[in-house]
Amino acid sequence: MAGQRIGAVLTPRGFRGPGGGRVSYVQAPVEYRGTTVQVCGLWPFAAGSGTPMVGTPIGPHLRTGATVCFDPITWFTRAHLISQPSMFVLGRPGLGKSTFTRRTVLGLAAQRVTPLILGDLKPDYSALVARLGGQVVKLGRGLGALNPLDVGALGRVLPQLFGAQAERVRAEVRGRQLTMTAALITLARRQPVTDHEETILATALRLLGERHADTQPPLLGDLVTLLATGHPDLQAVTLARGEDDRYRAAVDPLHRSLLGLLDGPLGSTFARPTTVRLDLDAPAVCIDISGIHASDERLQAAVLLSCWSDGFGAVEAAHTLADAGLAPPRLFYAVMDELWRVLRSGAGLVDRVDELTRLNRGHALGTAYITHSLADLEALPNDTDRAKARGFVERAAVVVCGGLPQRELHELAQVVAFSQAEQRMITEWSTPPSWDAELGQEAAPPGQGNFLIKIGTKPGIPVHVDLTPAELASAVHNTNQRWHHNTASVELP
Protein backbone atom coordinates (compact mmCIF):
# COMPACT_ATOMS: atom_id res chain seq x y z
CA MET A 1 0.00 0.00 0.00
CA ALA A 2 1.40 3.36 -1.01
CA GLY A 3 2.89 5.36 1.87
CA GLN A 4 3.01 2.35 4.24
CA ARG A 5 6.45 1.52 5.66
CA ILE A 6 7.86 -1.89 4.64
CA GLY A 7 8.00 -4.28 7.58
CA ALA A 8 5.87 -2.11 9.90
CA VAL A 9 3.12 -3.89 11.81
CA LEU A 10 -0.16 -2.04 12.41
CA THR A 11 -1.55 -2.42 15.92
CA PRO A 12 -4.55 -0.82 17.70
CA ARG A 13 -2.09 1.81 19.02
CA GLY A 14 -0.52 2.60 15.65
CA PHE A 15 2.46 1.20 13.75
CA ARG A 16 4.98 -0.73 15.85
CA GLY A 17 8.52 0.51 15.53
CA PRO A 18 10.50 3.76 15.52
CA GLY A 19 8.23 6.77 14.98
CA GLY A 20 5.10 4.68 15.57
CA GLY A 21 2.57 4.81 18.37
CA ARG A 22 -0.90 6.22 19.00
CA VAL A 23 -2.14 8.88 16.59
CA SER A 24 -3.16 11.89 18.71
CA TYR A 25 -4.79 13.84 15.88
CA VAL A 26 -7.59 12.59 13.65
CA GLN A 27 -7.84 14.52 10.42
CA ALA A 28 -11.33 15.90 9.74
CA PRO A 29 -13.12 14.34 6.76
CA VAL A 30 -13.87 16.35 3.64
CA GLU A 31 -17.22 18.15 3.92
CA TYR A 32 -19.64 18.84 1.07
CA ARG A 33 -22.79 20.95 1.08
CA GLY A 34 -25.85 20.10 -0.98
CA THR A 35 -29.65 20.04 -1.05
CA THR A 36 -31.64 17.22 0.50
CA VAL A 37 -32.29 15.87 -3.01
CA GLN A 38 -28.58 15.74 -3.80
CA VAL A 39 -27.29 14.23 -0.53
CA CYS A 40 -30.24 12.09 0.54
CA GLY A 41 -28.39 8.93 -0.51
CA LEU A 42 -25.48 9.68 1.84
CA TRP A 43 -27.61 9.17 4.97
CA PRO A 44 -26.63 8.84 7.82
CA PHE A 45 -23.43 10.72 6.98
CA ALA A 46 -25.22 14.05 6.44
CA ALA A 47 -25.95 16.70 9.10
CA GLY A 48 -28.08 19.80 9.02
CA SER A 49 -26.62 23.26 9.52
CA GLY A 50 -26.56 24.70 13.03
CA THR A 51 -29.16 27.14 14.33
CA PRO A 52 -28.29 30.84 14.79
CA MET A 53 -26.59 31.54 18.11
CA VAL A 54 -26.91 35.33 17.93
CA GLY A 55 -29.78 37.04 19.70
CA THR A 56 -32.18 36.29 22.54
CA PRO A 57 -32.25 32.61 23.61
CA ILE A 58 -35.72 31.32 22.74
CA GLY A 59 -35.53 27.58 23.38
CA PRO A 60 -34.52 24.24 21.84
CA HIS A 61 -34.85 23.35 18.18
CA LEU A 62 -37.73 20.88 17.90
CA ARG A 63 -35.71 18.50 15.69
CA THR A 64 -32.09 18.76 16.82
CA GLY A 65 -32.46 20.08 20.37
CA ALA A 66 -29.91 22.82 19.66
CA THR A 67 -30.53 26.20 21.29
CA VAL A 68 -32.24 28.72 18.98
CA CYS A 69 -31.50 32.43 19.50
CA PHE A 70 -33.64 35.05 17.83
CA ASP A 71 -34.85 38.62 17.97
CA PRO A 72 -35.40 40.88 14.95
CA ILE A 73 -32.98 43.63 15.99
CA THR A 74 -29.98 41.38 16.70
CA TRP A 75 -30.56 39.35 13.56
CA PHE A 76 -30.53 42.62 11.61
CA THR A 77 -27.67 44.52 13.29
CA ARG A 78 -25.22 41.78 14.31
CA ALA A 79 -26.06 38.55 12.50
CA HIS A 80 -27.07 40.25 9.20
CA LEU A 81 -29.61 37.49 8.58
CA ILE A 82 -32.50 39.80 7.64
CA SER A 83 -32.80 43.02 5.67
CA GLN A 84 -34.89 44.95 8.22
CA PRO A 85 -35.67 44.55 11.94
CA SER A 86 -39.34 43.54 11.79
CA MET A 87 -41.41 40.46 12.50
CA PHE A 88 -45.04 39.39 12.17
CA VAL A 89 -46.34 36.88 14.74
CA LEU A 90 -49.43 34.77 14.01
CA GLY A 91 -51.07 31.93 15.92
CA ARG A 92 -54.27 30.78 17.54
CA PRO A 93 -55.14 32.20 20.98
CA GLY A 94 -53.61 30.42 23.95
CA LEU A 95 -50.58 28.99 22.13
CA GLY A 96 -48.05 31.50 23.42
CA LYS A 97 -47.75 34.43 20.97
CA SER A 98 -47.42 36.89 23.83
CA THR A 99 -44.94 34.64 25.64
CA PHE A 100 -42.76 34.42 22.52
CA THR A 101 -42.85 38.20 22.08
CA ARG A 102 -42.20 38.84 25.77
CA ARG A 103 -39.05 36.71 25.52
CA THR A 104 -37.74 38.96 22.73
CA VAL A 105 -38.69 42.03 24.82
CA LEU A 106 -36.78 40.68 27.80
CA GLY A 107 -33.71 39.78 25.73
CA LEU A 108 -33.56 43.13 23.95
CA ALA A 109 -34.03 45.07 27.20
CA ALA A 110 -30.94 43.24 28.51
CA GLN A 111 -29.09 44.54 25.43
CA ARG A 112 -30.05 48.15 26.24
CA VAL A 113 -32.72 48.33 23.57
CA THR A 114 -35.81 50.20 24.82
CA PRO A 115 -39.01 48.12 24.32
CA LEU A 116 -42.20 50.10 23.66
CA ILE A 117 -45.47 48.22 24.20
CA LEU A 118 -47.78 50.56 22.32
CA GLY A 119 -51.14 49.36 23.63
CA ASP A 120 -51.39 46.41 26.06
CA LEU A 121 -54.96 45.13 25.96
CA LYS A 122 -55.07 42.18 28.40
CA PRO A 123 -52.50 43.19 29.82
CA ASP A 124 -49.73 40.86 28.64
CA TYR A 125 -46.65 43.01 29.12
CA SER A 126 -47.25 45.49 31.96
CA ALA A 127 -46.05 43.09 34.69
CA LEU A 128 -42.82 42.41 32.79
CA VAL A 129 -42.18 46.12 32.16
CA ALA A 130 -42.80 46.86 35.84
CA ARG A 131 -40.32 44.14 36.85
CA LEU A 132 -37.78 45.73 34.49
CA GLY A 133 -38.23 49.06 36.27
CA GLY A 134 -39.95 50.62 33.26
CA GLN A 135 -42.84 53.05 32.85
CA VAL A 136 -46.42 51.70 32.81
CA VAL A 137 -49.06 54.19 31.60
CA LYS A 138 -52.74 53.28 32.18
CA LEU A 139 -55.37 54.61 29.79
CA GLY A 140 -59.12 54.13 29.59
CA ARG A 141 -62.38 55.73 30.63
CA GLY A 142 -61.65 57.70 33.79
CA LEU A 143 -57.99 56.61 33.81
CA GLY A 144 -56.29 59.08 31.48
CA ALA A 145 -56.52 61.05 28.27
CA LEU A 146 -54.65 61.37 24.97
CA ASN A 147 -54.79 64.63 23.06
CA PRO A 148 -54.45 63.78 19.33
CA LEU A 149 -53.31 67.38 18.66
CA ASP A 150 -50.52 67.24 21.24
CA VAL A 151 -47.15 67.90 19.64
CA GLY A 152 -45.76 64.95 21.60
CA ALA A 153 -42.09 64.30 22.26
CA LEU A 154 -41.27 65.29 18.68
CA GLY A 155 -42.72 68.77 19.12
CA ARG A 156 -41.08 69.22 22.49
CA VAL A 157 -37.60 68.99 20.96
CA LEU A 158 -38.30 71.93 18.60
CA PRO A 159 -36.82 74.60 20.95
CA GLN A 160 -33.47 72.77 20.72
CA LEU A 161 -33.40 72.77 16.90
CA PHE A 162 -32.72 75.48 14.33
CA GLY A 163 -32.99 76.13 10.62
CA ALA A 164 -33.94 73.42 8.15
CA GLN A 165 -33.95 70.71 10.80
CA ALA A 166 -36.51 72.61 12.87
CA GLU A 167 -38.71 73.13 9.80
CA ARG A 168 -38.54 69.42 8.96
CA VAL A 169 -39.58 68.43 12.48
CA ARG A 170 -42.38 71.03 12.50
CA ALA A 171 -43.75 69.57 9.25
CA GLU A 172 -43.44 66.07 10.69
CA VAL A 173 -45.49 67.08 13.75
CA ARG A 174 -48.24 68.53 11.56
CA GLY A 175 -48.27 65.41 9.41
CA ARG A 176 -48.74 63.19 12.45
CA GLN A 177 -51.49 65.45 13.82
CA LEU A 178 -53.32 65.29 10.49
CA THR A 179 -52.99 61.52 10.22
CA MET A 180 -54.20 60.97 13.77
CA THR A 181 -57.16 63.34 13.50
CA ALA A 182 -58.27 61.84 10.18
CA ALA A 183 -58.00 58.33 11.66
CA LEU A 184 -60.20 59.25 14.64
CA ILE A 185 -62.81 60.80 12.35
CA THR A 186 -62.76 57.65 10.22
CA LEU A 187 -63.41 55.57 13.34
CA ALA A 188 -66.22 57.84 14.53
CA ARG A 189 -68.13 57.94 11.24
CA ARG A 190 -66.98 54.48 9.96
CA GLN A 191 -66.17 56.08 6.62
CA PRO A 192 -62.86 57.47 5.34
CA VAL A 193 -62.09 61.16 5.22
CA THR A 194 -62.21 62.66 1.72
CA ASP A 195 -59.27 64.42 0.11
CA HIS A 196 -61.09 67.77 0.34
CA GLU A 197 -61.70 67.25 4.05
CA GLU A 198 -58.02 66.42 4.54
CA THR A 199 -57.12 69.75 2.93
CA ILE A 200 -59.45 71.58 5.32
CA LEU A 201 -57.99 69.71 8.31
CA ALA A 202 -54.42 70.41 7.22
CA THR A 203 -55.13 74.13 6.94
CA ALA A 204 -56.92 74.25 10.28
CA LEU A 205 -54.11 72.37 12.04
CA ARG A 206 -51.54 74.77 10.57
CA LEU A 207 -53.50 77.74 11.90
CA LEU A 208 -53.82 76.14 15.33
CA GLY A 209 -50.10 75.36 15.37
CA GLU A 210 -49.27 79.01 14.71
CA ARG A 211 -51.68 80.21 17.42
CA HIS A 212 -50.41 77.78 20.06
CA ALA A 213 -46.72 77.87 19.18
CA ASP A 214 -45.77 79.36 22.56
CA THR A 215 -48.66 77.99 24.65
CA GLN A 216 -50.21 74.67 25.54
CA PRO A 217 -51.01 72.37 22.59
CA PRO A 218 -54.50 72.88 21.09
CA LEU A 219 -57.38 70.49 21.79
CA LEU A 220 -60.06 69.05 19.53
CA GLY A 221 -62.43 71.66 20.99
CA ASP A 222 -60.16 74.38 19.61
CA LEU A 223 -60.34 72.74 16.19
CA VAL A 224 -64.16 72.73 16.36
CA THR A 225 -64.18 76.41 17.32
CA LEU A 226 -61.86 77.32 14.44
CA LEU A 227 -64.08 75.53 11.91
CA ALA A 228 -67.13 77.29 13.32
CA THR A 229 -65.62 80.79 13.06
CA GLY A 230 -64.56 80.41 9.42
CA HIS A 231 -61.01 81.77 9.20
CA PRO A 232 -60.16 83.43 5.84
CA ASP A 233 -57.63 80.67 5.05
CA LEU A 234 -60.35 78.06 5.57
CA GLN A 235 -62.70 80.10 3.41
CA ALA A 236 -60.09 80.02 0.67
CA VAL A 237 -59.49 76.23 0.66
CA THR A 238 -63.24 75.53 0.69
CA LEU A 239 -63.77 77.80 -2.33
CA ALA A 240 -66.50 79.62 -0.40
CA ARG A 241 -65.82 82.91 -2.27
CA GLY A 242 -67.44 84.90 0.54
CA GLU A 243 -70.61 82.81 0.58
CA ASP A 244 -71.28 81.44 4.05
CA ASP A 245 -73.59 78.69 2.75
CA ARG A 246 -70.83 77.25 0.54
CA TYR A 247 -68.42 77.30 3.47
CA ARG A 248 -70.87 75.57 5.83
CA ALA A 249 -71.65 72.88 3.25
CA ALA A 250 -67.94 72.11 2.99
CA VAL A 251 -67.06 72.02 6.71
CA ASP A 252 -70.28 70.77 8.29
CA PRO A 253 -69.50 67.03 7.79
CA LEU A 254 -66.16 67.52 9.53
CA HIS A 255 -67.80 69.67 12.18
CA ARG A 256 -70.36 66.96 12.96
CA SER A 257 -67.71 64.23 13.11
CA LEU A 258 -65.52 66.23 15.49
CA LEU A 259 -68.48 66.93 17.76
CA GLY A 260 -69.09 63.20 17.76
CA LEU A 261 -65.52 62.63 18.88
CA LEU A 262 -65.98 65.03 21.79
CA ASP A 263 -69.40 63.85 22.98
CA GLY A 264 -69.94 60.53 21.21
CA PRO A 265 -68.89 56.91 21.87
CA LEU A 266 -65.21 57.78 22.27
CA GLY A 267 -66.09 59.86 25.32
CA SER A 268 -63.71 62.39 26.79
CA THR A 269 -60.59 60.28 26.18
CA PHE A 270 -59.50 62.59 23.34
CA ALA A 271 -61.04 65.85 24.52
CA ARG A 272 -58.56 66.64 27.33
CA PRO A 273 -54.81 67.29 27.51
CA THR A 274 -52.56 64.25 27.55
CA THR A 275 -52.27 63.08 31.16
CA VAL A 276 -48.96 61.15 31.11
CA ARG A 277 -46.12 61.60 28.63
CA LEU A 278 -43.87 58.75 27.55
CA ASP A 279 -40.52 58.51 29.32
CA LEU A 280 -38.06 57.08 26.81
CA ASP A 281 -35.28 57.20 29.41
CA ALA A 282 -37.01 54.31 31.21
CA PRO A 283 -35.72 50.74 30.55
CA ALA A 284 -39.07 49.92 28.91
CA VAL A 285 -42.46 51.59 28.34
CA CYS A 286 -45.89 49.94 28.38
CA ILE A 287 -49.20 51.67 27.66
CA ASP A 288 -51.77 49.57 29.53
CA ILE A 289 -55.24 49.96 28.00
CA SER A 290 -56.76 46.89 29.67
CA GLY A 291 -59.17 49.26 31.43
CA ILE A 292 -61.12 49.60 28.16
CA HIS A 293 -63.80 46.90 27.94
CA ALA A 294 -63.43 44.39 25.11
CA SER A 295 -66.90 45.28 23.79
CA ASP A 296 -65.84 48.91 23.32
CA GLU A 297 -64.12 48.12 20.02
CA ARG A 298 -64.07 51.62 18.57
CA LEU A 299 -62.51 53.14 21.68
CA GLN A 300 -59.92 50.34 21.78
CA ALA A 301 -59.01 50.94 18.14
CA ALA A 302 -58.85 54.71 18.62
CA VAL A 303 -56.60 54.44 21.68
CA LEU A 304 -54.34 51.91 19.94
CA LEU A 305 -53.92 54.26 16.99
CA SER A 306 -53.12 57.14 19.34
CA CYS A 307 -50.61 55.03 21.27
CA TRP A 308 -48.85 54.02 18.07
CA SER A 309 -48.73 57.60 16.85
CA ASP A 310 -47.41 58.90 20.19
CA GLY A 311 -44.84 56.10 20.42
CA PHE A 312 -43.46 56.51 16.92
CA GLY A 313 -43.32 60.28 17.40
CA ALA A 314 -41.31 59.82 20.61
CA VAL A 315 -38.86 57.51 18.82
CA GLU A 316 -38.43 60.04 16.03
CA ALA A 317 -37.76 62.73 18.65
CA ALA A 318 -35.00 60.63 20.23
CA HIS A 319 -33.40 60.06 16.82
CA THR A 320 -33.65 63.76 15.95
CA LEU A 321 -31.78 64.71 19.13
CA ALA A 322 -29.15 62.06 18.41
CA ASP A 323 -28.67 63.34 14.84
CA ALA A 324 -28.18 66.86 16.20
CA GLY A 325 -25.56 65.63 18.68
CA LEU A 326 -27.77 66.53 21.63
CA ALA A 327 -28.33 62.97 22.92
CA PRO A 328 -26.70 59.54 22.53
CA PRO A 329 -28.00 57.18 19.80
CA ARG A 330 -30.78 54.85 20.94
CA LEU A 331 -32.36 51.62 19.72
CA PHE A 332 -36.08 50.90 20.18
CA TYR A 333 -38.36 47.88 19.82
CA ALA A 334 -42.06 48.63 19.23
CA VAL A 335 -44.62 45.89 19.90
CA MET A 336 -47.97 46.42 18.14
CA ASP A 337 -50.35 43.78 19.46
CA GLU A 338 -53.93 43.04 18.35
CA LEU A 339 -53.40 44.68 14.95
CA TRP A 340 -56.71 43.29 13.68
CA ARG A 341 -58.75 45.36 16.16
CA VAL A 342 -57.73 48.58 14.43
CA LEU A 343 -57.82 47.36 10.84
CA ARG A 344 -61.37 45.99 11.13
CA SER A 345 -62.85 49.04 12.86
CA GLY A 346 -63.58 50.98 9.70
CA ALA A 347 -62.89 51.35 6.00
CA GLY A 348 -59.69 53.22 5.20
CA LEU A 349 -57.94 52.53 8.52
CA VAL A 350 -55.38 50.33 6.77
CA ASP A 351 -54.08 53.49 5.09
CA ARG A 352 -53.87 55.28 8.45
CA VAL A 353 -51.89 52.48 10.08
CA ASP A 354 -49.62 52.34 7.05
CA GLU A 355 -49.05 56.11 7.25
CA LEU A 356 -48.27 55.96 10.95
CA THR A 357 -45.67 53.25 10.49
CA ARG A 358 -44.15 54.77 7.36
CA LEU A 359 -43.93 58.21 9.00
CA ASN A 360 -41.27 56.73 11.25
CA ARG A 361 -38.12 57.70 9.36
CA GLY A 362 -35.70 56.51 12.03
CA HIS A 363 -33.96 53.25 11.20
CA ALA A 364 -33.05 52.34 14.78
CA LEU A 365 -36.48 50.83 15.46
CA GLY A 366 -37.49 47.19 15.42
CA THR A 367 -41.19 46.34 15.11
CA ALA A 368 -43.32 43.36 16.06
CA TYR A 369 -46.87 43.03 14.68
CA ILE A 370 -49.08 40.45 16.39
CA THR A 371 -52.45 39.04 15.34
CA HIS A 372 -54.27 35.71 15.36
CA SER A 373 -54.06 34.82 11.68
CA LEU A 374 -54.06 36.24 8.18
CA ALA A 375 -57.82 35.61 8.16
CA ASP A 376 -58.15 38.63 10.48
CA LEU A 377 -56.68 40.77 7.73
CA GLU A 378 -58.69 39.05 4.99
CA ALA A 379 -61.93 40.00 6.77
CA LEU A 380 -61.54 43.66 5.81
CA PRO A 381 -64.44 45.21 3.90
CA ASN A 382 -62.88 45.68 0.44
CA ASP A 383 -60.19 44.22 -1.82
CA THR A 384 -57.98 47.32 -1.62
CA ASP A 385 -57.78 47.20 2.16
CA ARG A 386 -57.16 43.45 2.11
CA ALA A 387 -54.28 43.84 -0.34
CA LYS A 388 -52.70 46.59 1.77
CA ALA A 389 -53.11 44.54 4.95
CA ARG A 390 -51.33 41.60 3.32
CA GLY A 391 -48.51 44.03 2.66
CA PHE A 392 -47.83 44.21 6.41
CA VAL A 393 -47.01 40.49 6.34
CA GLU A 394 -45.14 40.65 3.03
CA ARG A 395 -42.90 43.49 4.24
CA ALA A 396 -42.03 41.76 7.52
CA ALA A 397 -38.51 40.34 7.43
CA VAL A 398 -39.47 37.43 9.70
CA VAL A 399 -42.82 35.66 10.01
CA VAL A 400 -43.27 33.65 13.22
CA CYS A 401 -46.10 31.10 13.09
CA GLY A 402 -47.74 29.27 15.95
CA GLY A 403 -50.51 26.73 15.46
CA LEU A 404 -52.93 27.61 12.65
CA PRO A 405 -55.85 25.68 11.11
CA GLN A 406 -55.37 24.29 7.62
CA ARG A 407 -57.79 26.77 6.04
CA GLU A 408 -56.01 29.79 7.50
CA LEU A 409 -52.59 28.34 6.73
CA HIS A 410 -53.63 27.97 3.09
CA GLU A 411 -54.29 31.72 2.94
CA LEU A 412 -50.95 32.49 4.60
CA ALA A 413 -49.15 30.20 2.14
CA GLN A 414 -50.09 32.67 -0.61
CA VAL A 415 -47.75 35.18 1.10
CA VAL A 416 -45.13 32.98 2.84
CA ALA A 417 -43.58 29.92 1.16
CA PHE A 418 -44.11 26.83 3.33
CA SER A 419 -43.02 23.30 2.53
CA GLN A 420 -45.54 20.46 2.90
CA ALA A 421 -43.79 19.29 6.06
CA GLU A 422 -43.93 22.79 7.57
CA GLN A 423 -47.63 23.14 6.78
CA ARG A 424 -48.37 19.76 8.34
CA MET A 425 -46.39 20.67 11.47
CA ILE A 426 -48.13 24.05 11.97
CA THR A 427 -51.55 22.45 11.46
CA GLU A 428 -50.77 19.75 14.05
CA TRP A 429 -49.87 22.49 16.56
CA SER A 430 -53.41 23.88 16.28
CA THR A 431 -54.96 20.61 17.55
CA PRO A 432 -57.27 21.31 20.52
CA PRO A 433 -56.12 20.10 23.95
CA SER A 434 -57.28 16.74 25.24
CA TRP A 435 -59.01 16.05 28.56
CA ASP A 436 -56.75 14.87 31.39
CA ALA A 437 -58.89 12.38 33.34
CA GLU A 438 -56.45 12.18 36.26
CA LEU A 439 -56.36 15.93 36.88
CA GLY A 440 -59.95 16.48 35.81
CA GLN A 441 -59.07 19.32 33.47
CA GLU A 442 -57.84 20.03 29.97
CA ALA A 443 -54.20 19.25 29.27
CA ALA A 444 -51.96 21.87 27.69
CA PRO A 445 -52.54 22.27 23.93
CA PRO A 446 -50.05 20.11 21.98
CA GLY A 447 -48.78 23.15 20.10
CA GLN A 448 -48.42 25.45 23.10
CA GLY A 449 -45.05 27.21 22.96
CA ASN A 450 -44.14 25.84 19.52
CA PHE A 451 -43.29 28.30 16.73
CA LEU A 452 -41.80 28.26 13.26
CA ILE A 453 -39.42 31.13 12.43
CA LYS A 454 -39.58 31.83 8.68
CA ILE A 455 -37.32 34.11 6.65
CA GLY A 456 -38.53 34.40 3.08
CA THR A 457 -38.29 31.12 1.19
CA LYS A 458 -35.65 29.63 3.50
CA PRO A 459 -36.54 26.53 5.55
CA GLY A 460 -38.19 27.51 8.81
CA ILE A 461 -36.69 26.99 12.26
CA PRO A 462 -39.09 25.09 14.57
CA VAL A 463 -38.51 26.07 18.19
CA HIS A 464 -40.17 25.56 21.57
CA VAL A 465 -40.20 28.49 23.99
CA ASP A 466 -38.66 27.26 27.24
CA LEU A 467 -39.53 29.34 30.31
CA THR A 468 -36.90 29.60 33.01
CA PRO A 469 -37.74 28.82 36.68
CA ALA A 470 -37.66 32.56 37.43
CA GLU A 471 -40.21 33.21 34.68
CA LEU A 472 -42.44 30.38 35.84
CA ALA A 473 -42.29 31.58 39.45
CA SER A 474 -43.37 35.10 38.49
CA ALA A 475 -46.72 36.18 37.10
CA VAL A 476 -45.37 37.96 34.03
CA HIS A 477 -46.22 35.05 31.69
CA ASN A 478 -49.65 34.29 33.10
CA THR A 479 -52.23 35.97 30.86
CA ASN A 480 -55.12 34.37 32.76
CA GLN A 481 -54.37 35.87 36.17
CA ARG A 482 -57.94 36.99 36.78
CA TRP A 483 -59.22 33.42 36.29
CA HIS A 484 -56.63 32.08 38.73
CA HIS A 485 -57.31 34.80 41.29
CA ASN A 486 -61.09 34.41 41.11
CA THR A 487 -61.09 30.60 41.31
CA ALA A 488 -58.41 30.29 44.01
CA SER A 489 -60.98 30.81 46.79
CA VAL A 490 -63.94 29.18 45.05
CA GLU A 491 -64.67 25.48 45.50
CA LEU A 492 -65.63 24.24 42.07
CA PRO A 493 -68.03 21.28 41.78
What does it look like?
The chain has 493 residues and is of the alpha/beta class. The protein folds into 2 domains: 49-78 and 90-106 and 394-493, no CATH class; 112-372, no CATH class. The protein has helices at residues 36-39, 72-77, 97-110, 126-131, 152-156, 163-189, 195-211, 220-229, 232-237, 244-263, 297-323, 339-343, 349-358, 374-378, 383-395, 406-412, 420-429, 469-473, 481-487; strands spanning 9-11, 14-16, 57-60, 67-69, 86-90, 114-120, 135-138, 285-288, 332-336, 365-371, 398-401, 435-436, 441-442, 450-454, 461-464. The strands form 4 sheets. A 9-stranded mixed sheet has the order 7-8-6-9-10-5-11-14-15, with helices on both faces. A two-stranded antiparallel sheet has the order 1-2. The protein has a two-stranded antiparallel sheet with strand order 3-4. Helix 6 crosses helix 10 and helix 8 packs antiparallel against helix 10 (244-263). The relative contact order is 0.15. Mean pLDDT is 81; it is low at 482-493.
Give the topology:
Layout: E1 9-11, E2 14-16, H1 36-39, E3 57-60, E4 67-69, H2 72-77, E5 86-90, H3 97-110, E6 114-120, H4 126-131, E7 135-138, H5 152-156, H6 163-189, H7 195-211, H8 220-229, H9 232-237, H10 244-263, E8 285-288, H11 297-323, E9 332-336, H12 339-343, H13 349-358, E10 365-371, H14 374-378, H15 383-395, E11 398-401, H16 406-412, H17 420-429, E12 435-436, E13 441-442, E14 450-454, E15 461-464, H18 469-473, H19 481-487
Parallel strand pairs: 5-10, 5-11, 6-8, 6-9, 7-8, 9-10
Antiparallel strand pairs: 1-2, 3-4, 11-14, 12-13, 14-15
